[in-house]
Amino acid sequence: MARPAAVLCLLLALLGAGSVAAAAWSAEDAEAEPASAGGPRPPSPKPSPPSPRPPPPPPSNARAWGANGFGQLGNGEIGDSAQDVVIVSGSLQFTSVVVGGYHVCGLEGGGAAYCWGKNMDGLVPILGVGEEFNGVVPQPSPVLGGHTFAALAAGVDFTLGLLANGSLLAWGSNNCGQLGVGDTDPRSVPTPVATDATFTGASAGNGFACAMRADTRTPMCWGRGDRGQVGDGAAVDRLVPTSVNLTDVRPSNKTFLSLTSGDRHTCMLHAPTYAVYCWGDNLARQSAQFGVNLVPVPKQAWSGDWQCSALAAGYEHGCCLQYSRDFPAEVGLVRCWGSNEYGALGLGTTSTTPVHFPEDPVAGGRTYSAISATNYAGHTCALEAGTGLAYCWGISFSRQVGGGLADSVYSVPTPADPQNRTFAAVVAGGEQTVSLVA
Ligand SMILES: *[C@@H]1O[C@H](CO)[C@@H](O)[C@H](O)[C@H]1NC(C)=O
Ligand SMILES: *[C@@H]1O[C@H](CO)[C@@H](O)[C@H](O)[C@H]1NC(C)=O
Ligand SMILES: *[C@@H]1O[C@H](CO)[C@@H](O)[C@H](O)[C@H]1NC(C)=O
Ligand SMILES: *[C@@H]1O[C@H](CO)[C@@H](O)[C@H](O)[C@H]1NC(C)=O
């Protein structure tokens, strides 16, 4: 009982909402007053009129489960939680969250960014929230610089923030040039990416990142390139945004809708056809090509009767939210490809033989409205269409699949929240999952 209250007050104090914290304590004091025993009351001095007490703010709409070694569950604690699902500290109402390897960031309605989780790369703070946190930030803390963001993307130990005018900022670790700022020094505050281009979206992987140009709707990538992550055909690191080579994209209309990056690969949706193109590492067939171990420039993943309305690139896998012009009954099935060693494909099996073509949808027959896969471990989560229930599958060493056991593998979609809450978003990252209640 005392512990959550202390955590709440700590957070409120950090947010500068001291009066609200005082109100909460007064309410507790009032409860402790002895009940009137009846009989004539002794005259008591008139108390000074109570200061107005605003109702306590509602808790944050963010819920989290999984690993918490760096406070990435955001509930004020560090270390694995005994609870299945924890409430992120404070009363921020997030409109979106992104989950990196060991950290989480969210945008509240006005576009202000908050991050929590692992904060140190050597001596440099990487969450963009300052360094007064001893390396670990176990509750949402405001990102420095006062920017208003339209979207965020979280990689392993770094973060990208897209401004409403399309300019991109980056902060965090930069050992491979993943911030796109022209060098390999980490940045402790949001820093402009070194390009004149403006973007409509961004994705971040492990040591590299990509973004979709606003003018041409074509991708640029930067950072680690040893496995073809940059997509320019060169397989070397790039310190500034570099155009992805679209020579092998056959349609003449080479415009794209969205990007998603896994550990060492990226996939994107072709705008006119909803076909999938991937590049990067293919050792686990995560770039959906047969017979090659590296895909240096984007190649079409498969051609078939069905397309995708959304993609999620995972650690060594990818998943597609199916959209089929010809098979409306299949809209919303999820199909995954790549490594199935830890059940990432949701097929009810595990296998060391990777899959380049997602012949079967994930088990269970449900249809989903959203998917998300982690770029740093191996789980995937999806929201069931209609109900908003969260299901996850894959590796669950830190209970990131939710509800169940640690050190387990769930090879079929498994209910993530024992309370069956309706979620508006569920986001998988690292060994944790963060969701927003509807
Ligand atoms: C977008 O806004 C930021 C902040 O006001 C500014 O620094 C940047 O130059 C703008 N970008 C463009 C493309 O206008
Ligand atoms: C793009 O890739 C194609 C084939 O993969 C290659 O022939 C071409 O030289 C590349 N273009 C650039 C600008 O690197
Ligand atoms: C390319 O495809 C997009 C999406 O279908 C469409 O909006 C655009 O007009 C097309 N551009 C050309 C030049 O055909
Ligand atoms: C959640 O749903 C499952 C499956 O329908 C059911 O067994 C369980 O009792 C539900 N839990 C709650 C708290 O309603």
From TrEMBL:
Keywords: Guanine-nucleotide releasing factor, Repeat, Signal. RCC repeats lie at residues 111-165, 166-215, 217-272, 332-386, 388-438. Residues 40-60 have a biased composition (Pro residues). One of its GO terms (cellular component) is cytoplasm. Residues 64-434 form the RCC1-like domain. Residues 26-39 have a biased composition (Low complexity). Residues 1-22 form the signal peptide. Pfam families: WD40_RLD. GO terms for molecular function: guanyl-nucleotide exchange factor activity. It comes from the Eukaryota. Residues 26-67 are annotated as: Disordered. This is RCC1-like domain-containing protein.
